[in-house]
Amino acid sequence: MSESVNQQPVPLHEHGQRRPMKKRLWWIAISPSVWAIHFLACYITAAVWCEKIGEGNLRPLQISVGIYTAIALPVIIWVGYSSYRNFRRGDPPVPYDFDDPTDRTHFFGFTAFLLSSLSVVATLFTVLVFVLVGSCD
Amino acid sequence: MNFVPSQSALDHAGVGAESIAGLFWVMLIGGCLIWLIVVGLAVYAIVVPGQHDQKRTRMLVIGGGAVFPTIVLTALLTYGLAMLPDLQRPAPEGSQVIEVAGVRWWWRIHYRMPDGNRVETANEIHLPVNEPVEFKLKSEDVIHAFWVPSLGGKVDMMPGRENRLKLHPTRVGVYRGVCAEYCGEAHTQMAFDVIVESREDYDEWLRQQASLAVAISDEAEAGRKIFAGSGCGACHSIRGTSADGVVGPDLTHFGSRRSIGASVLPNNADNLTRWIAETHRVKSGVEMPAFETLAEDELRALVRYLGELK
Ligand SMILES: [Cu+2]
Q1: What is the ipTM, given to two decimal places?
Q2: Secondary structure letter of residue B5 according to DSSP
Q3: Would you put residue B12 in left (φ > 0), alpha (ψ -120 to 50) or beta?
Q4: CATH 2.60.40.420 matches B218-307
Q5: Residues of B in contact with A134 (CB under 8 A)
Q6: Whose CA is closest to A39, among A21, A65, A19, A13?
Q7: Closest by Cα among B250, B137, B171, B133 to B11
């Protein structure tokens, strides 16, 4: 795409503070990774608990899942919130596909925000299993 | 009583199958609802002319494309998960326990008796109506899956592992079970009959299965000799005789079964003759040699014998 064809005006906001979020590609992977780790932790704990330790009493298992969630959700929400603040700066119009630092930052922020929302829902779905299925059967 | 076995999950005759069928309908309606709204919004966007209001568009995209499906999915997931504990709870202590092992390509069945003995049979399961029954599922070779669609859910049979399943039939009748995990050449011919009957009929059946082979007529006696002489007993057991093989299905009460070869043919003299003489044309791949060399009268005697093993 040559610039003469696509004369999209680059939003000129925030040029005083360049690159407000010093985030690279890995930033957008944090939320899904936290979800995946949370999922694995729940799964492994449940497997070990049901197979080796206490069949009948599930309280400790549910409490562990509660603790994992209490750690995972704030991380995801924090990533989502700071990404949201970042990509909303100046309310730039989509799409963020211009090859310059501002659009890249907006793109990362927007993507990370959407993935964080998805990760919150997915993490809650994982927890739902432990709330509704109160047995090892 | 239905005589053509039912194999439909929607034609439910058990507690598990009923809730699974209910889940199916709810999921179907939920899925249709999402489809209608998403496609409806797309059609609306295309058909309504002129520029759409920015704010409303954004609301519709976020609402219809993300929020609404999430709400519906959450509701469906909650509904499905809430069903699980009941479906998965084992049958109460003292219920009949039936062990079923998948063997390429048939089913080895053991009924656990109150006195600790196990009664072996094959390819046909009888269940008392309105009583929960606990299944212990195993495999002797590869992965199979045990599924009686009209009665309940499907459970894999893994080599070296014991899985469990509870079935709770609610309607008297004949149902068809199948292997639901591809296991090789004759996988599609690996089925079984399930007969749900009254407690009295069931007790009578189990008492008969637990007994040794019944006395046979003089005409069948020739068949018994051929059975012994042809080496059938190396693979098949007929309790009460010298035949004690374990490679193939137990034939002690074979004559009482509805079908031959894991529900492949109806059990009658003609089909049994075919099964013995041209085994692999009936069910290709089975680990039973075809006995093509038996003379016609030998075959007739053998078939008579097996048919009398009620
Ligand atoms: Cu199979």
Answers
A1: 0.73
A2: P
A3: beta
A4: yes
A5: 85
A6: A65
A7: B171
